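Quick one, tokens below. Sequence please?
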């Protein structure tokens, strides 16, 4: 499958400033995701799958966020989730799915 959506990131060039920007991006996206913003889910998936914004690559977290966006119809997230799934073990995918369910349960309790 094409991985054109992946951006090459040279992590050796990431400075402390970028780490702060990455933390701020994650915080903003998490706040938006808590309100059901599917684009925030997707942005988090991209950040965790590519190491963008100085964030460490974490395919389990990336899958979780792509999965959350995909289940509500984000087509690009569906493709990205499929792409990274090819690089993950069944156990890692199961963990990502568990984390997605946990996120949904936590955010639906807050909304109630």
């Amino acid at each position: 499958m094409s991985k054109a959506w992946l951006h090459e990131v040279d992590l050796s060039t990431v400075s402390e400033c970028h780490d702060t920007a990455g933390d701020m991006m994650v915080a903003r996206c998490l706040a938006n995701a808590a309100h059901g913003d599917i684009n925030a889910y997707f942005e988090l998936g991209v950040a965790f799958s590519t190491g963008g914004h100085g964030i460490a690559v974490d395919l389990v977290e990336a899958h979780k966020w792509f999965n959350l966006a995909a289940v509500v119809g984000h087509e690009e997230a569906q493709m990205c989730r499929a792409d990274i799934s090819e690089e993950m073990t069944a156990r890692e995918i199961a963990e990502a799915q568990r984390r997605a369910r946990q996120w949904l349960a936590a955010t639906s309790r807050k909304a109630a």
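The two ends are 40 Å apart (CA to CA). Helices lie at 16-34, 38-50, 59-70, 75-85, 90-111.
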